Amino acid sequence: MVQGSEVPLRVSLVIPMHDEQDNVEPLLAEVEEALAPAAPFEVIVVDDCSRDATLARLRAFQSAAPRPWLRVLRLQRQVGQSGALLAGVEVARAPLVATLDGDRQNDPRDVARLLAMVEGGRCDGVVGVRVRRQDSWVRRISSRIGNAVRNWITGDRVTDAACGVKVLPRAAFLKAPRFNGMHRFMPTLMRSLGLRIVEEPVNHRPRSAGRAKYGIGNRALRGLRDCFAVAWYRSRVIDPRVEQEW
Fold first, then answer.
1. Distance from the CA of 72 to the CA of which of 45, 161, 228, 235 falls in 20 to 30 A?
2. Could you tell me if residue 156 is inside a domain?
3. 210 assigned to some structural domain
4. Residues in Cβ contact with 223 at an 8 Å cutoff, skipping those fewer than 6 apart
């Protein structure tokens, strides 16, 4: 696929990765095929200081064949998923950004479908809701409880806050408050800026390689604190917009 730099991109797909060496090649091969209907596009993979061969395999995949759509970023220090996503969005060249987790549990084929919803004017942004989740019962129950608590505190309704599949306007993404964990609150943060954000069912797959980075122990307390912070933000946010100028 030839994508000249002069052709406006429809979407920039940002994929954060940390210690996902065995998922690099199969995921990017899937992405290349799945995003063909969304051309012209770019894919920005952000390596969050992996300790394994993730970066080496990203570079090998990039150089194995002409892939002008693929960009690889290596962060100076590990910043977590929110920081890695933000780094990719900052350098993205398309007006719309899509996000995808790097563990292959998200289905890349969902991206083109969600992109079409935004481009068709149905909404300003779309966030996925994982159906038939392929996780342990502990993770599913903890996620359900976490979403309920989150919605109660923030006053917003989000079915699946941790789903990695999203399509959002880049400009709005960059206007949102920046904090560690912001990626789980993007629907609420976008709505606070006046955007029409809808939810859409997406596919979910078992993890076939690598290890999960999140669990109850490293999410519960921090997530609760973030909920109160976002609730405060929603009550105080200002978004002045000029209607006319003479």
1. 161
2. yes
3. yes
4. 146, 150, 181, 184
Is 246 part of any domain? no
Res 223: pLDDT: 82
CATH number of residue 81's parent domain: 3.90.550.10
Alpha-carbon 220 to chain mean position? 20
Burial of 111 (0-12, 13-18, 19+ CB in 10 A): buried
Query: Which pLDDT value is given to residue 92?
Result: 98
Distances from the Cα of 242 to the Cαs of 101, 239, 245, in angstroms? 36, 10, 7
pTM, 2 dp: 0.88
Burial of 114-145, coded b for 16+ CB within 10 Å and e otherwise, reads bbeebeeeebbbbbbbbeebebeeebeebbee
Domain count, the chain: 1
Specify whether the CB–CB gap between 13 and 42 falls below 8 A: yes
Condensed to tens digits (0 to 9), the pLDDT of residues 198-234 reads 999 999 888 777 666 555 555 667 888 899 999 999 8
Identify the domain containing residue 86 by its residue range.
11-236
